[in-house]
Amino acid sequence: MKLNKVTIFSSIALLSVGLAGCSSSTTTPKPKNISYSQLSNYKSRKKAINKGLARKLKKDQKKAKNGNDDYNYSLYVYKIQTWEDQTIAVNVAKDNYMDLSNKEKIAVGQSIDTLVKKTFKENYVKTKNIFITIYDEDGNTLIPAFNYVTLKFKNKKVQEEANAPVEYQNALAKAQSYSDNMYMSKKGIYDQLVSKSGEGFSAKAADYAIKHVEANWNKNALEKAKSYQENQNMSINNIKDQLTSPYGEQFTKKQAEYAISHLSK
Q1: Is 89 in contact with 133 (CB distance < 8 Å)?
Q2: pLDDT tens digits, one per residue of 67-94
Q3: Distance CA 112, CA 116 (A)
Q4: Distances in Å between the alpha carbon of 68 and those of 64, 71, 102, 200, 236?
Q5: Cβ neighbours around 159 below 10 Å, total
Q6: Is 205 in contact with 150 (CB distance < 8 Å)?
Q7: Nearest 5 degrees, angle CA 234-CA 237-CA 243?
Q8: Cα atoms in the 13 Å half-sphere on the side-chain side of 171
Q9: pTM of the entire structure?
């Protein structure tokens, strides 16, 4: 009987030791902390991060559909993934997303930034700079990379436009339309923006618009000159006068000279 007792005791002792050994050998070590720039060398972790981003986005979309306004950002997004150059590529439904105001777009970007950082932290990835680029369904870039860590846009001009008052943004939209569709001069656009019989914007809004409008004034002058030559059959001298006249197009002399030099002879 003593032998049996000893045998039972010994078996239990051995089993305890075995379990302890197994427990020790299967302890999972904490993953190594890495930087975002190193992520491309850790493919399994990158895959886990992209799965995590998709999972969190889906959860946020469910919360938004249940009436939680704090997660409305997710309704405009259908894909988030990491790219190799420290960029977070975000695909959005173009039509719905582009209807948002600039401030609302910034809010979407900030929410994405929060989601990404949380996922990175869970996967032991450290980062100081996250650049978020918005793409449409076809992969076309809608908005350039933003650095939401400092809340400053990589493109300073875009940052100024996003933070501008609504009146300034509207004045810029009008100025851009006049340049793109009517090929007007800088002075001509400004006068049209502030004119009471025109757009009626304030001088400050018009100044902002002229500063930020994307226009090639030489090209605009040339397009106007071509119109006068082809549609009104005007002489070179009269075209030049019309381009520079304070009662005409109000281009500079250099811009008018450029246009004349590029007209068909």
Answers
A1: yes
A2: 998 899 999 999 999 886 678 889 998 8
A3: 6
A4: 5, 6, 22, 40, 65
A5: 17
A6: no
A7: 80
A8: 26
A9: 0.49
